[in-house]
Amino acid sequence: MAMSCSSSSVRLRLNLAPSRRRTAAPANLQVLRCVGMAASPLRLCATRATGGDARQPFDHVPRGVEEIGEMEEEEEGRRRRRGLKIAVVGFGNYGQFLTRTLVRQGHTVLAHSRSDYSAVAAELGATFFTDPHDLCECHPDVVLLVTSILSAEAVLRSLPVHRLRRDTLFADVLSVKEFPRNLLLGTLPEEFDIICTHPMFGPESARDGWGGFPFVFDKVRVGDCPARHTRAEAFLDIFAREGCRMVEMSCAEHDAHAAETQFLTHTVGRTLAMLELQPTPINTMGYETLLRLVDNTCSDSFDLYNGLFMYNNNSTELLNRLEWAMDSVKKRLFDGLHDVLRRQLFEGSPPLDSVSAAAAAAGSPPDDAPIDGDLDSDNDEEELE
């Protein structure tokens, strides 16, 4: 009998539970029924009421394309007004040189390098990060690669780009352009923007300002979103505000020109340096120019010069042309000298001194050489008259 009561009580509880769920109703619905109003579906309004957004980054809530674009544009406008947050990756001499201007313009600079430049960064008004993970977690607007050409690939692959925002802008300042272009396109996610640049100046040449110096850039990949265009223009505006001559050209076109404007200049400067030229009491303006060329080119590291050769497809051809040009000049000189010697040996001409031989080699007959150092041909004609 006890067992029967026990089981009956259990059955009673099980039967009542569904009944309670069916009949129970929220208080607001009961009020609505009392006044004869139909109940409307319940909606969650907490996120709107608090003025916030409870969505997580992994939530995908459908939203109009125009609304997203307007929000991003407004956010980018706010960023531009307060300055960009720029991560300078490679905080050596050139990175510090650029940082001075970036900070002066009001941008936030986050610095990273293999060596510890914490003290230098603090002095310049930048924040230094020894760990690239910490750097990327600060979500910079722009990551600016200021590395050597030879180390660019290793440095880029060491960055945890998955910690960055998916629309981050990457830029570089390498002296060659096709190499970093292909490297960035092949390494970075397709959502990232890319601008390849080359400031045609350095700490020595632009120590008094950047005004008038060329700044070459190529917008390799910039998203269609207005906010991305605004950010790209804000980055380029850094150099335009300093008076740089803004030159937009493709990376391939840049390298074709740079083989002559840079690699040739460095090659001639380093070749002259092998001669160990020294100032003399009778320096000419041309000789002074050569001495300055040696100083300017040799003040840069050999790695830079080697990078200009290794990573520019046009450098090998230019080096061959330079060698051909030198051989052509030597041939012309020695051919003239050989002509003089042949006349002495086979035509019975009297031996010539060094000055006459040089004049003959240059194509001027010895008889036309000036007399008594008088180089004014008009005066000679007046005396003859």
UniProtKB/TrEMBL annotation:
Q: Does the keyword Oxidoreductase apply?
A: yes
Its BP terms in the Gene Ontology are: tyrosine biosynthetic process
Against SUPFAM superfamilies, the record matches this protein to: 6-phosphogluconate dehydrogenase C-terminal domain-like (SSF48179), NAD(P)-binding Rossmann-fold domains (SSF51735)
Q: What superkingdom heads the lineage?
A: Eukaryota
Signal sequence bounds: none
Compositional bias (Low complexity) spans? 354-366
Pfam family, any one: PDH_N
Which residue intervals define the domain Prephenate/arogenate dehydrogenase in the entry? 84-363
Task: Indicate, by first and last residue, each region the UniProt record lists as having compositional bias (Acidic residues).
Answer: 369-385
Q: Which UniProt keywords apply?
A: Oxidoreductase
Disordered: region residues: 354-385
What is the protein name for this chain?
Prephenate/arogenate dehydrogenase domain-containing protein
**Organism from which the protein derives:** Oryza punctata (Red rice)
